[in-house]
């Protein structure tokens, strides 16, 4: 294993982590602040990718498609909140799981009806489509650097908003005690709506920037939702900081594990056995990590203050 | 969905015979394919290909009216089993055409052949039923799963690749493909990488590929995995330094998502839309006119399946009661295959030519695989000698 290859793997891990963070950020706020289990969060990631595809077809410009997709994802999130989720806040978790699971099925099928079952893809914008020569044999796509950067910008923006603005203060307070905030005269309903809309937009944004890297297909959000839940549980529910570090951790461990597990095992066992169990073990790593962290820190890495 | 499809297909078949209701002595054909989830595109090609053939023959095969019942196996073995059992027990079909995936075929195999109903696979061709467990009621019109990978090994030899990096999903078909490739490839396999099924991000694997020093990669990544791999491969700038060789990774179902990224990539197969023969040219033209997309091998195999049934039913004069006569008629394979030469081996798997294909962009901006040259003539699978039939 050369150091350059290791570096590439770390970059990949970071990039995957950033993507996970964009999805987990919205999920952790909705879950942590509102105590609401939103299984449909993954499907909003898929919606973002399909929106990007549709707008690229329509306008021909990737940047324009990004902006239009974000706006549409936000509006869709607000509509979903207004028509469906709002009525579920006070119901128990089983009802929420049922309703949001229904939305997954509905939107997955809708995507299939509108765009067909085949896998779609969009090309990254022209000026980001090249790759950078890192060493003689290694190139790294510019677009992936941009994804890492976009993730960092969003993370910083969220951190500043939540730590230093009035709305951020209300979100933190709402996470601790929603009734109290409401009793103090804050329109908690509107606050929830904003949190929800922004969460949906972030998931949509993740879908948009993932679209040129991964393929667009119905059900693409289902698997990533599970990983996003691992991230927010590892990081501590309702904690943006926790989600950030957990996302990076999960991204790095998953990526490095997949490349290194087989190699490390083959130093101990014979190669064919290592080839058999290496890939299996690699895909379990993040769940093992989650279990281990929960043993030592049952509330996650960086739990939000006051969340019980 | 299922009901809707059933009505739709029955409707097509019925309208083709000008509104007359299906009579009891019509030929009944049950079809079990995957029409849910992302692999639905493959099942849809099979339905489309078969229906095109039916329509061209005015809803008749071998001069008999045909009632086609299409079922979706949802890519779940238990669902496939229930649907297949109801086709043979309730609908009493004469033939079952299915499936797309080998594991679905394994689920439906027993109840169908044990009820003395003919099972014809338009795509799945597992090794399981090619050797010792071959069955008089089972025919395959596609290929034996290992063959494409074996031919890929021959292509690698002919193209002079010395070091090849191999990567497949970690499941049975993936492992079979690596075995098949290594069976014929004479050079050095630098790595064998197994990814999870449905793998999203190939960046870690691509990093390994770029430092492996291989001249080519051999892979089997069907469906969405193939779209992601090919796009990421091209974006990482690897296409300039190494050749990309695959089976079921760059085909007509994935090319709409891969586009320019896949141009020039090599594949092994028994057919391409531009394979030069008259029947094929007419088929591709009619198919594109009707469905608006370029057919893949799945549609071609379904069309050939319909032509095979047409020839067999004509030979028996529509009499399905004498199973031995039906089997003999099927075995003759007396139809014009879109692939050119086609015959059945003793194990009822095809003997046919395999070719090297590459991906090209057509003048109208659509992409398809293109015939380059024939690699293996009249190529039979390597399990047939174990079949006592």
The CATH class of chain A turns out to be Mainly Alpha
Q: Which structural class is indicated by helix and strand composition of chain B?
A: alpha/beta
Number of helices of chain B: 12
N-to-C series of helices and strands of chain B: HEHEEHEHEEHEHEHEHEHEHHHEEE
Residue stretches of chain B low in confidence (pLDDT < 50, at least 5 long) are 10-24
Query: What is the CATH architecture assignment of the largest domain in chain B?
Result: 3-Layer(aba) Sandwich
Silhouette of chain A: globular
Q: Please give the radius of gyration of chain A in angstroms.
A: 20 Å
Shape of chain B: globular
End-to-end C-alpha gap of chain B: 40 Å
What's the total count of β strands of chain B? 14
What spatial order of strands do you see in the largest sheet of chain A? 1-2
How large a portion of the residues of chain A is in β-strands, by DSSP E?
under 5%
Q: pLDDT under 50 segments of chain A (min length 5)?
A: none
Taking the alpha carbons of the first and last residues of chain A, their distance comes to: 44 Å
The total domain count of chain A is 1
How would a crystallographer describe the biggest sheet of chain A? Answer: 2 strands, antiparallel
Corresponding CATH superfamily of the largest domain in chain B: Response regulator
Largest sheet of chain B: 8 strands, mixed
Q: Can you count the beta strands of chain A?
A: 2
CATH architecture of chain A: Orthogonal Bundle
Quickly list its features.
heterodimer; A: 308 residues; ABC transporter involved in vitamin B12 uptake, BtuC; 11 helices; B: 389 residues; alpha/beta; Rossmann fold
